[in-house]
Amino acid sequence: MIEGRAGRPAVFLDRDGTLMRDTGALPVFDPELLYPGVVEALRELTALDLPVALVTNQGWVARGALTYNEAEQATAGLARYLERAGVRVLGWGFCPHHPDVDTGPWAGRCVCRKPEPGLLVRLAVRHGLDLGRSVMVGDNLIDVEAGRRAGARSAIVMTGDGSGHRGLIPAGVPVLESVADLPRLLRRGFPASNPS
Ligand SMILES: [Mg+2]
Ligand SMILES: [Zn+2]
Question: Most buried residue, 28, 35, 101, 136, by CB count within 10 Å?
Answer without folding.
Answer: 136
